[in-house]
Specification:
Radius of gyration: 23 Å
Largest sheet: 6 strands, parallel
Number of strands: 22
Shape: globular
Helix content: 25-40%
Strand content: 15-25%
Strand order of the largest sheet: 3-2-1-4-5-6
Number of helices: 15
């Protein structure tokens, strides 16, 4: 698909870097020349105003299947969609950074009918949903659902007291209806085999039925201490505010630490069950005074990576249960994880997942990405030529795992002896660089 993108930003760089190998990307901005990191990507660049019809013509807008407006200005993005929609009929995605724009665009038909916005994406909302999902399944560091919840994907981190340490996979008794898809070790993702020995800090990724995944969590990863009943949110911006509202709705006892007094007054007015504390997160005494180490979860979501990193380290040292942090860029995530943070989330990466899963996936088989883009989960239909074959007899050209098979209305977590039938739909996992070869194999190409 040919995709037109407006705006030279960190978000557009992430999107382009991930999509340019499979899609024809045209980038428009009024920069005279591309910044160095963009110049290294396989894209076409058109310099000029996105509202100029000659620029849109030069960008080949009429041949594009998708337009993504992701400049730094919400207002410019809205105008850009309007201009493009007047030039050509094209599906349009508008990025926003302000809550008020997100609410108004998402709830007003004017923006879709008159302006031409088909999808509005707000990176901060994606971070909130991701953190809330992980808090809801506290023993996991990543959670995703497929087949309307009939198949669930959880990523765990093997702790120092886990009896899985130094065990080969063939000696581990994982429950029926679960499959280990991959393993991340020291930041590198790979597909393990039976002789792979698990180590402290490894992050295995499993997929399975709700029943199987519940048994897996209870038997291998979950303890009573993992249950999250209290949380401290450091940073009372949009992310902190939305998280507190969601925690209130499920009965999690919540505190918010916010340094701006006016913002604290706003939070106190809007939140009925959350304790709002006006204090600076750089004040080390505050952590002990507010008993941060006693919380089941500490979520650091200020706009400063340095502050979030400092608060995360202190919270861990004081004994907090789970510690989550907002990372300003994807390059910061490994630094957070090495400091002991249970999960660090970048708005850019979470919104990239949402963009691909909700919008671009209809042009491909992609269902999701994991391990910061190192692994891909995708869906492939079983061709007639594969009907009647057992999974163990397949000769896939590179390492891949079939995690789920949908047989009509039934979802199956397969084993080696599971027989494929024409018309079945498979959810597969592979490393990102191998996904195209795996898809080609199952399509008989």
């Amino acid at each position: 698909m040919k995709i037109l993108i407006y705006g030279i930003t960190d978000i557009s760089y992430l999107i382009i870097k991930d999509l340019c190998s499979e899609h024809d990307i045209v980038l428009v901005d009024d920069y005279e020349e591309l910044p160095q990191k963009f110049a290294k990507l396989d894209i076409n660049f058109v310099s000029g105003s996105i509202s100029d019809s000659s620029v849109l013509a030069g960008a080949g807008t009429a041949e594009c299947g998708l337009f993504i407006a992701c400049s730094r200005s919400d207002e410019a993005n809205i105008v850009a969609v309007w201009a493009v929609s007047r030039f050509a009929k094209i599906e349009a995605v508008c990025f926003v950074s302000k809550m008020e724009y997100f609410k108004s665009i998402a709830n007003d038909d004017f923006y879709s009918s008159e302006v031409g916005i088909n999808h509005v994406l707000w990176p901060e909302e994606s971070v909130v949903k991701e953190i809330f999902r992980m808090v809801s399944v506290p023993e996991a560091i990543y959670v995703d659902f497929f087949e309307n919840g009939k198949a669930r994907l959880f990523e765990y981190k093997i702790k120092e007291d886990s009896f899985l340490i130094d065990r080969a996979l063939k000696d581990c008794s994982f429950p029926d209806e679960t499959v280990m898809l991959a393993l991340t070790r020291n930041g590198e993702l790979f597909i393990p085999n039976g002789s792979t020995v698990l180590k402290k800090g490894d992050q295995p990724i499993f997929i399975g039925s709700p029943k199987g995944m519940s048994i897996l969590a209870r038997n291998l990863f979950f303890t009573k201490e993992d249950r999250i009943e209290s949380a401290v949110i450091i940073g009372g911006g949009n992310i902190g505010f939305m998280l507190a509202r969601m925690f209130e709705s499920v009965g999690i006892k919540t505190k918010i630490i916010e340094k701006d007094r006016a913002r604290c007054e706003f939070l106190s007015e809007k939140l009925s069950k959350t304790l709002v504390i006006n204090a600076s997160s750089s004040d080390s005494d505050m952590f002990e005074e507010e008993e941060i180490g006693e919380a089941d979860a500490v979520i650091n979501v200020t706009n400063s990576d340095e502050t979030n990193l400092f608060c995360s380290v202190v919270a861990k040292q004081l004994g907090a249960g789970k510690v989550f942090a907002r990372a300003g860029s994807d390059s910061m995530i490994p630094i957070f994880e090495k400091s002991g943070v249970d999960a660090a989330l970048s708005p850019g990466l979470t919104i990239l997942n949402e963009l691909k899963n909700k919008i671009i996936k209809k042009d491909s088989s992609l269902l999701g990405i994991v391990a910061r883009g190192q692994g891909k989960i995708f869906e492939v239909d079983v061709m007639p030529s594969f009907g009647g074959r057992r999974i163990m007899d397949l000769r896939i050209p590179c390492r891949a795992v079939i995690g789920v098979i949908r047989k009509k209305n039934r979802v199956v977590i397969p084993k080696g002896g599971t027989v494929l039938s024409a018309g079945d739909s498979m959810i597969l996992f592979s490393k990102a660089e191998d996904s195209a070869s795996v898809i080609s194999y199952f399509k008989g190409e």
